[in-house]
Amino acid sequence: MGPGTVLGMGKQASAHIVWDWNGTLFHDNEAIIGATNAAFAELGLAPITLEQYRALYCVPVPKFYERLMGRLPTESEWELMDGVFHRCYTERRARCALTDGAAELLLGWRSAGHSQSLLSMYGHEELVPLVRGFGIEEHFVRVDGRTGPSGGSKAEHMVRHLSRLAVAVDPARTVVIGDAADDAVAARHVGAGAVLYTGGSHSRASLEEVGVPVVDTLAEAVEVAQRIAA
């Protein structure tokens, strides 16, 4: 299945949600921290806690490492850490599950006649079977994972994602739901709204600096998204 796999078709949507995956629909915090610390160990760096991660995490990811190392990693260090991170994350993700209530929210939004899609910076070829394995692929008109190098911003990926949807959407009635400041940056880049969820990679304090609604549950995120897209 190639990049930008279309997983469903539908009529023109009155409101559209673009969901993030890691840390939003997929509750993988433990896998992320375990893989991050495995990558740090390769360079002799001390492990960090989830609280430290959520306070310091940012994209592009090398800038996150700079906050911890006091300097940007060299190209060889980045390649080493990135490789270790993805290998260890893949080993740990099998123990992770969807965020509580996520499947029901996806079904409810679709049943209400709205459309939704999924855009992740997780590798596309790994993302699609993972989504399918949870039995939720039918709820999305499109699923896009990252193609190309890891570590960058979601903004340009969002442009391509919206242009390739199987339904026509109005950016003014489109809302991105994610757990990272970069999700709001990507939404702003295409003229869409954004709601940020505190259960993933960022602390509430860091999310509130972005200037978009911040919520503690995905149910709240959908409620706010519906108001934004109304």
Structural class: alpha/beta
- Report the count of strand segments: 8
Characterize the overall form. globular
Calculate the terminal CA-CA distance, rounded to whole Å.
34 Å
- What is the percentage of strand-forming residues? 5-15%
The total of helices stands at 10
Query: Helical proportion?
Result: 40-55%
Give the integer mean of the pLDDT values: 92
Instruction: Summarize the biggest pleated sheet.
Output: 6 strands, parallel
Description:
A six-stranded parallel beta sheet has the order 5-4-1-6-7-8, with helices on both faces. The chain has a two-stranded antiparallel ribbon with strand order 2-3. Residues 1-12 have low confidence and may be disordered. Strand 4, helix 6 (124-133) and strand 5 form a beta-alpha-beta unit. The protein has helices at 29-42, 50-56, 61-69, 75-92, 102-111, 124-133, 155-163, 181-190, 204-208, 218-229; strands spanning 16-19, 26-27, 97-98, 115-123, 143-146, 174-178, 193-197, 214-215. 45% of the residues lie in helices and 14% in strands. The radius of gyration is 17 Å and the shape is globular.
